[in-house]
Amino acid sequence: MGKDRIPQNWPSSMPYLSQPSFAPHITRTQKDALRIRSPDLTAIIPSNLPRGPCSLVKIIPIAEPSHPAHGQAGLFAARHLEPGTLILPYYGLVHSSLPPHSIAHDKSDYDLWLNREVGVAVDAEKAGNEARFINDYRGVGERPNAEFRQCWDARSGQQCMGVYVLPAGKKNTPAKVGAGAGGIAKGGEILVSYGKGFWSKRREEQDAANRA
């Protein structure tokens, strides 16, 4: 892939994905399950969405010392993003979340459930797209301004994870992180909630490390 197809500030040592990558151990049953669109899967990645770098976002290094991700990077809106709209898909390695294959992803901060019923998740730790740089809102804003949603990718005909601006009914973060009257303002950091389970697991790991 040429440099013009890699976002600015993308790590040179990490593969950039314009579509999901599948682990060799994924079974036919799991693949077939991902190709089924259930009636409640209403969020859609449209068939005309271009692959490759997303023009709606920018990867920007975090220079503010008080930011929890100081010294790393975050994902910011390149223009105003309307409430409830798709920002971009979340790409990574689609893998089995069942033992023994789940062991390799247990400590990843980039692993999301894709289909719990058949035990499939997507991990962007070692390869992915811009969505892997989205930070948790804690320590940055009062609440998130975006969310992960399981959705249907009309381009490939399979289930996918996407990042959406919070709908208008869910209050956005204050001006501190660039939220306007609705949606996410240009220049605002895109923030989600990693969830209580994520932080509980990280605390357990830290406690175990301290006891070692």
TrEMBL record:
Q: Which residues form a coiled coil?
A: none
Xref: PROSITE patterns:
SET
Q: Which domain of life is it from?
A: Eukaryota
The residues covered by the SET domain are: 52-195
**What's the protein here called?**
SET domain-containing protein
Origin species, per record, is Xylaria flabelliformis
